[in-house]
Specification:
Helices cover about 40% and strands about 15% of the residues. Strands 1-2-3-4-5-6-7-8 form an 8-stranded parallel β-barrel, surrounded by 5 helices. It binds 2-phosphoglycolic acid (PGA).
Amino acid sequence: MKPLIIANWKMNPQTLAEAKQLFDSIRKGLENIKNSEVIICPPFLYISNLKSNILNLKLGGQDCLWEKSGAFTGAISPLMLKNIGCQYVILGHSERRIYFGETNEITNKKIKAALFADLKVIFCIGETETEKKKGETQKVLENQLKEGLNGILEREMENVVIAYEPVWAIGTGNPCNPEETKKTALFIRKIISELYPSIISDNLKIIYGGSVTGENVAEYSFKSGVGGFLVGGASLKPDEFVKIVKIVSQS
Ligand code: PGA
């Protein structure tokens, strides 16, 4: 399986011109890298202006609603993302949970709708610093997985990627160390094996996110055994992001 590297631009950059420039620089940097799949997730507004002409560079949304269309002011539906050329959508990101009050139940509805619209889902889970300090990491992850995937069919799981993103590691410059990430990825796979047949849990792609940089990604690629990365801050620096993709593609 090719490693998967997701660029989560969040609410950046501030102008379309900058977004186009950033996208083009990344696209040029990736032209000769075949051994990985790269998904750029820009703010919704920019998506239709960014076109990839290379196979291993795709587009994704950072969120979507659970409905197809209708009176939902300000919202974007999974079908809209699909129709504008997205193949992926990030759901359950901790910033959606923290700033927009999204619960496991809401995330679950969104996952169902996105899969129904034929999008691949990057389902984010992760414990906060307080939960970690209280020794609740496994309990939190187990709940997020069980409630987030409630009712998701076996055949739909082929289109789900789990992103382990400890909240305390996001944007802090303090990543979870590779050994701990590896242990947590094993735990996630174990929970999935309780919910689905082994063909699903064995083949499930689990990626890591939280302060991944060009400096630390090599160590992760070799030691953590994850199938890719979700990159926030470093995905806004084209040289660094391309460096991350190159390192992951070679490992
Ligand atoms: P970061 O963000 O790489 O800036 O820590 C990761 C994420 O939120 O997906």
